[in-house]
Amino acid sequence: MTKENPFIPYRKGNLVIIDGRVNENIVNFLERMGIMAIKTIKCEEVHESISYHPDIVMHPINYNTLIVAPNVFKYYEEKLSRTGIHLIKGEKILSKDYPEDIAYNVGRVYGYGVHNLKYTDEKLLFYLKKEGIDLIHVNQGYTKCSMAIVDETAIITSDYPMYKKMMDYGIDTLLIKPGYIDLEGFNYGFIGGCFGNLSNKDIFISGKLSKHPDEERIYSFFKKYKKNLIFLSDEKIIDIGTIISLYC
User: Fold this and answer.
1) Has this prediction a pTM greater than 0.90?
2) Would you give the DSSP letter of residue 236?
3) Which of 103, 149, 156, 171 is 20 to 30 Å from 218 by CA-CA measure?
């Protein structure tokens, strides 16, 4: 039996955790949809470009449990205190230089946790194993950033070694060209950081793919899995570190 993937809520989420720098128009749009938007706080210890990214500082163990880096734990403990979402403080204190910033950036697909396991937070590993998640080692550290989760057995990535590894495990993987995604301070951002699953049918996307050379292939891949894309902006797609949907 396929283990449930918390990055794909089995019913429509009513709370999202989103990059604290997003335009207020996006927050208002989410609220009009009946979704509570929790904007992230800056994690001062990591690189400025990813300092507000949800997938850098937290990981959903399951649908109502988050493991959060000690750097920012108190903020989320206060923000989510009345939501019924359970928080666990991780062990790894994040810092600026790679790989000291990747401990919680684990990709999830089809009951697998995918990461550079040499650097995964030990408490996160414990809880993943407790959930019965099988672990796959890859050399990529920003694994969740690099993985757009389309369906239980389908992802998009621009990381060729990850593509090869996932195909070996029977995951339908669309390989796209790297780049063409904005992330200030880096040459380019990652495809996984541009999306977030609101439900098993609805997927948020941070902007339009009109400047991406694989635009049609990406849209066709989502169409293959009958996904409804919800665009948060008419601007060029940007990496905002995954939109994490929960319900409470």
Assistant:
1) yes
2) B
3) 103
